[in-house]
Amino acid sequence: MSNHYDVIVIGAGPAGYSAAIRCAQLGMRTAVVDAFVFKDGEPALGGTCLNVGCIPSKALLDSSEQYHKVTHQLSAHGITAQGVELDVEKMIARKDRVVKDLTGGIRQLFKANKIEWLHGHGQLVEAKTVEVRRPDGSTERHSADSVVLATGSQSVELGAAPLDHERIVNSDRALDFTEVPERLGIIGAGVIGLEMGSVWSRLGSEVVLLEAQDEFLGPVDRQVARTAQKEFKKQGLDIRLGCRVTGTRVDGSVTVSYEDKNGKQELEVDRLIVCVGRRPNTDDLCSKEVDLLLDERGFINVDEDCKTNLPDVYAVGDVVRGPMLAHKGQEEGIVVAERIAGKGGHLNYETIPWVIYTDPEIAWVGRTEEQLKKAGIPYNTGVFGFAANGRARAMDQTAGMVKLIAHAETDRLLGAHIIGPQASELIAEAVVTMEFAGSAEDIARTIHAHPTLSETVHEAALAVGKRAIHKAN
């Protein structure tokens, strides 16, 4: 069987399915090739993000937060709860329902947009020909005018801590623990490690994170990172920096051998999660006859329009340069679809927001003070703490701050860094301001409702000019 399409997309994660939907909206006959199978054995759209990444982790973060509030925080509100019980299996089942609802929604969108889903492994066998290897081993080839590669990424494995998928697992399997480990070790204190650590710490685990870097959250503004480290320590997360894992031994429990500034150390835990980064899914993406250009780390080389070295073959999402973020991939997919259709798609890589969904949340966009100093760019900063915000006080969530950075001469907003409640939502105002080349003054002169958390952004903007109302400047 062989069909010809206007566009074939390989990969059905946020980058791939967004590209496919936009192509279909623009009148192109579109097919998507994806082989993902959910843990129940059913084929599923949505890729890593919806099935074993962004969505399920946020579902568990929310469930664990609810449990922690009931067991540790409600008494301050005059609420006493007795007989509180934790049903981890029910929590996991809820997470799976959330995932199923969303992946089923993508399937309905494919149906509504007349997108054909070819379930199987997709391989580029000629410049614009894709071979689909079905689960039963059969193969079929399809051609297209344009091909979009959007195969996403996978967890990096660590030779010193080989996975056994029971005691030593990656972040995917950590979403399906059926009981709370008494002692949990995590290799890597980045975004994924901190989020996984937060989930199981709130539920009662004693969590130790071993981070190879000497600096905590290197890409994050230093003032924000220091605040985060202090808050996580209060919560009981044991974050150990400068730790190089040298080996593991499984014998009922897991013994982790590592080296730090004090020499050789050992850590004994019940479960170990390996969260040391992700790598692009480009293995077996092309046949030997296809000369797709990759870099030394396995990423697909693309130009500013996401074009590869092959004619009419594009690549988007985690398989190309830039941050491995679902929303970045999604926007790239939409942009590529519009370019294929002859329209002027555009993506500003300087205004991509980042979020860590811990408590407090951490979010940022643009450049840090450290980057601006290194570049010799003059700047002013404005900082405002949630402790002085009425809504945050009423919510009893006063940890953290909003920090805005503006050019010293033009006042153009260059960066925003937030740690605190709903940082993931508050960052959007800064993103919009930067997208429109706005200034701190623009935010300062915009009326924000009272009482709201967004007033911290307003006050930080005022503080850039040393005129914040609710703090001493």
- Cα radius of gyration in angstroms: 24 Å
Number of strands: 22
Straight-line N-to-C gap: 71 Å
Name of the top-level CATH class of the largest domain? Alpha Beta
Number of domains: 3
Based on the structure given, which CATH architecture of the largest domain is correct?
A: 3-Layer(bba) Sandwich
Mean residue pLDDT: 97
CATH homologous superfamily caption of the largest domain: FAD/NAD(P)-binding domain
What is the molecular shape? globular
For the biggest sheet, the summary is: 7 strands, mixed
Enumerate the spans where pLDDT stays under 50 for 5 or more consecutive residues.
none
Tell me the number of helical segments per DSSP (H or I, 4 or more residues long): 13
| CATH topology tier name of the largest domain | FAD/NAD(P)-binding domain
Strand content: 25-35%
Helix content: 25-40%
Structure class? alpha/beta
Task: Please describe what this structure looks like.
With 473 residues, the protein is α/β, with parallel strands linked by helices. Helix 1 (14-25) runs parallel beside helix 8. Strands 1, 2, 3, 4, 5, 6 and 17 form a seven-stranded mixed sheet that branches. A hairpin with a 5-residue loop joins strand 5 and strand 6. The protein has three domains: 4-154 and 279-347, FAD/NAD(P)-binding domain (3-Layer(bba) Sandwich); 168-276, FAD/NAD(P)-binding domain, CATH 3.50.50.60; 351-464, FAD/NAD-linked reductase, C-terminal dimerisation domain (Enolase-like, domain 1, 2-Layer Sandwich), CATH 3.30.390. The termini are far apart. The chain contains 13 helices and 22 strands. Helices cover 31% and strands 26% of the residues.
